[in-house]
Design a protein that fits this description.
alpha+beta, OB fold (Dihydrolipoamide Acetyltransferase, E2P), 2 domains, six-stranded mixed sheet, five-stranded antiparallel sheet, 10 helices, 27% helix
Length: 365
């Protein structure tokens, strides 16, 4: 029998460990050997398109689905086959799942009442949480009297009421309007950091993941593509899927040549590295904001003549599509501040120069 970890071991070991998690529904393999570790107190986001397995994985952690193979260890305790009721977590669903016939006080207190905590203790905990989420005077109201964002705050308070070791968030913001999503994601992140509760959130929204996570798990077709900090995922993708799924990206098929140069169509580009084998087919990934636009013919490395094909106004910046004046090269998309677009009088047909900095060219085979 494995002994419980000591306090020092608890600090240094992951709070949650998943190893070899597999799950199939009939012939469809939803999860294909998932292995990951969640540190104590971190907010980890499962990010991926619909059908990638992220919600199935969250439900397995919660005990709402049973894995076909693999183990789950939470705080040194093997919970692989424990029923949901015996696991230590709180969960918030996309649909709020509040009890419409109960007051806000009773909704928040629900888990504490089931646990048979003392009445005064329950009242104090409910007051504390309603104050914490910024709704101290809503206790006697019913869910139907609150906005969507307020209801989701109540669902969060209910999940946190029993002081769980793990908080699970299943696309908690997707039912809200854009402004409320931005506001609430900041509040959830601040609350999570204040309480220090280990948290796993599922989302398909890249902006949510990048703004809230300590680390992101990018998933695709039941597998993990990459795990890293938001900056690592965005700036240093390790797979073509991650580069393409997280943020916008330009993709240029290329052939490596000698001397740290590659050929794209009929033109040569200088790379930021020279360790690739000549003749290797690669793809160059370049973020729209990393491409520099010039109107004065400046000749930095990898500066190329181009013609503006379209200008799409997006508020603070414009998405500018350009066609390079070189045969065999796909068009590029740039992000240009709107004041720069106005100053340069960019419109379809305008002749420009674009610079593809070698350090910004991410090479994935």
């Amino acid at each position: 029998m494995t002994s419980a970890p000591t306090r020092g071991e608890r600090v240094n070991t992951p709070y949650l460990q998943l190893n070899g998690i597999r799950k199939s529904f009939g012939r469809f393999e939803a999860l294909k050997g998932i292995a990951l570790e969640v540190a104590r107190g971190e907010l980890m986001v499962f990010l991926g398109p619909s059908g990638c397995g992220k919600t199935t994985l969250l439900r397995i952690v919660a005990g709402l689905e049973t894995q076909d193979a693999g183990t789950i260890v939470q705080d040194g305790r093997d919970i692989s086959r424990l029923p949901a009721v015996d696991r230590d977590y709180g969960i918030v669903f996309q649909s709020y799942a509040l009890f419409p016939n109960l007051t806000i006080d009773s909704n928040v207190a629900y888990g504490l009442v089931n646990r048979r905590d003392r009445r005064e203790s329950i009242k104090g905990r409910v007051r504390e949480l309603l104050t914490l989420i910024g709704l101290p005077d809503s206790g006697l109201k019913y869910p139907s009297q609150l906005s969507g964002g307020q209801q989701q705050r109540i669902a969060l308070a209910r999940a946190l009421a029993p002081a769980p070791g793990l908080l699970l968030l299943d696309e908690p913001l997707s039912a809200l309007d854009a402004l409320e999503r931005v506001r609430l994601r900041g509040e959830i992140r601040a609350l999570q950091q204040r309480l220090g509760v280990t948290t796993i959130m599922v989302t398909h929204d890249q902006e949510e993941a990048l703004s809230m996570a300590d680390r992101i798990v990018v998933m695709n077709q039941g597998r993990i593509e990459q795990i890293g900090t938001p900056r690592e995922i965005y700036e240093l993708p390790t797979t073509p899927f991650t580069a393409d799924f997280v943020g916008k990206v330009n993709v240029l098929p290329a052939i490596v040549e000698q001397g740290g140069v590659c050929r794209v169509g009929t033109m040569s580009l200088v790379l930021g590295r020279s360790d690739l084998i000549s003749g290797t087919a690669v793809k160059l990934y370049l973020r729209p904001e990393d491409i520099a636009l010039s109107m004065n013919g400046a000749k930095a490395t990898n500066t190329l003549p181009a013609t503006v094909a379209k200008v799409e106004f997006l508020g603070a910046f414009c998405m500018v599509g350009v066609a390079l004046d070189t045969p065999g090269v796909p068009p590029l998309v740039l992000n240009v501040p709107r004041h720069a677009v106005a100053e340069a009088q960019l419109r379809p047909g305008t002749a420009v120069s674009v610079c593809l900095p070698p350090a910004a060219l991410r090479i994935l085979s």
